[in-house]
Amino acid sequence: MADQHDIEALADSLSASADALHAHLMRALRQPAPGGAPAMSQGAAQALFENEVLLRQRANGLYLDSARLAAAGLDGAQQQLLELTRRAQDAIARIDRLKDMIDLTAELLSLGAAIATGKPDRLAAPLEKLKHHLDTLPAPG
User: Which residue has the higher pLDDT, 121 or 50?
Assistant: First the structure.
């Protein structure tokens, strides 16, 4: 990435995705499904809360490693990374299907891990997987 500020912006975006996931989870837990059953199982909620924590840890790792990552040669993917994480944040806020929520957050975690390695060659697979998943989600509304 071009500079430390760009990496911090990516970390901010991952943190915002974790915030969106948390808000979505809290809404789902407060609103029962039709018939009074829980909107999601305890196991599913726990898995998503764990993904939220991992997203925050990845973001924190990027904040801490921003100086090292700035020199790692990620500048070619900078705008694509920022755009995809923004799209993921928006998608998390509106996703209705639990499977999509789990898959999307797992893909964000994979992307964060690939970025944290500081090796641009490891970005391609998680980047494409996240992009494909976002492209196949239903349009908002």
Answer: 50
